[in-house]
Amino acid sequence: MARRQRRKRMKQRAVAPAAEAPPPEEQRLDLPPEVVYQLMRRYTLPAEQLHMLGFPHSSSFHRGKAYIYKGLAGSPRPARKVKLDAAAKEFVPRALASSDCDSGTHSSETGDDSSAASSGSEPDEQQVPDDVSEPESVHSSGSESERGEQRVSLLRPHCVRCTQQFAVTVDGYYSDQAERCVFHWGKLKSARAGPPSYACCGGRPGGRGCSTAPCHVWSGLLPGLNGPLKGYVRSRRRRVPPADSNYGVYALDCEMCYTGQGLELARVSVVGLNGKRVYDALVKPDRPVVDYNTRFSGITARQLDRATKTLRAVQSDLMGFISADTVLIGHGLENDLRALRLAHDTVVDTSVLFPHYLGLPYRRRLSHLTSSCLSWKIQEGGAGRGHDSLEDARACMQLVLWRARRDLQLE
Predict the structure, then answer these.
(1) Of 174, 219, 281, 288, which residue has the fewest beta carbons closer than 10 angstroms?
(2) Are residues 347 and 251 part of one domain?
C-alpha cells in the first residue's frame, strides 16, 4: 500500500500545476511621511559620485542641454589581446621620411622653413586611442554644385554587443549600409577552474557569437565628457515648500530600445512608498527603432506601435510631481535619467547602496538583490518576456525600505 500511495502522489504532483510562490513580505516603515523622507535623504549620492557614475548635469551656459561623463561606471570589457609582429617594418615619421637625408642636406642647416612646415605632423597623423571615437566630416556625394558647403559629421562608436566599430551620423542615422552584428547576449563569467565563458551559450572569448542582429548598436555616449546634449530638462525647486517638508519619495525604472542615437526611452514606470503605481506610460522614440531589445526591455514592436506619448510629454508629466528635492530611487538610475533626459541630483541608487564585493564598475543584479534580501524572485519571464519596469521599480523601493529597517534595527 505504501508504494501505491507514493506512486499516486508522484503522478498527482506531475499533473498538478506548480504552486505560486507566496508574495514577499512588504517592507514598511511605521513612521510619519516627513520622517521617512528625511531618512531616505541619508542614502542620496554626493555630487562627486553622481559625476563619476555618469549622471546628467545641466549646463549653466546652454539652456536645455546637459553634460554626461562616461568613464568609471561603464561595464567592464574584456581586454583586447595585442599581438606583436617581429617582422614589422620600422616606423619612420613622415617628417623624417620626406627630408632629403639621402643627399646629406638638412633643412635645419639651410634655414628653409617651408619644407619643415609642410612636412610637419598633421592632425590626421595623431594616434587616437581605440576607445575614443572623434566625429569626422565627410563630403556628401553628388556634383560640386550640389555639394557646396554640405558636410556630414560622422561618429565612429563601438558596438556595445560585439565591440566592432561602425559609422553613424550625429543626427542618429546610419551613414552607410549597416553590417550584421554577431555577438553573445549573455555576460562573460569567470570560472574558478578553466577559462571564462559567456552565460548565454557557454562560448569562450574570441569565438563567434551565438546571436545575430541586422546592425550594430551603441549607447549614445562616447568615453569621456559628452555634451552639450540637447533635449534635457532639469527638475526645479518648488516655490512654496510643503508644510511637512516632505517633497516625496518615488522609485523609477525605464525600459529602452536602440535607435541610431543610441538608447532611447520606450517605457517609464514610477511607484510611491507603498508600491502603488504613480505613473506608467509607453513612449514613442524620436528616431526609427533598429532593435527593440525585447530580451531585456520586454518591449515589442506591437506594443510600441500603440505608444502615443512623446519624450517631451513624459518630461512635462514627471515635472508635475517631481521637484529638485524629491528623492528618486532606482537601480543604475543614471541610465534611466539619460533616457528621460532629466537632470536630477537627489537620487538613491540600489546598485551603490548594495555594492559588489569587487567594487565599481561591477554591480550586483537587481534580481540577485531581491532574491538574497527579500526572498523575492523577479525577471523570471525569460528571453521572450524580458523585464517589467513596474516590477523593477517596486523592487527598488522595497530594497531601500528593507535597508532602512535594518539600519533602524526594526527587524
Answers:
(1) 288
(2) yes
The reported pTM is 0.76
CA dihedral 342, 346, 350, 353 (to 10 degrees): 150
306 and 394 belong to one structural domain: yes
- Looking at the structure, tell me whether residues 162 and 255 fall in a common domain: no
Domain count, the chain: 2
Do 164 and 38 share a structural domain?
no
Q: Which amino acid appears at position 288 of this protein?
A: P
Range of the domain at 182: 130-139+152-188+196-227
Residue 313, in any domain of the structure: yes
Task: Indicate if 270 and 218 belong to the same structural domain.
Answer: no
Q: Do the domain assignments include residue 119?
A: no
Q: Are residues 351 and 264 in the same domain?
A: yes
CA atoms within 13 A on the CB side of 378: 25
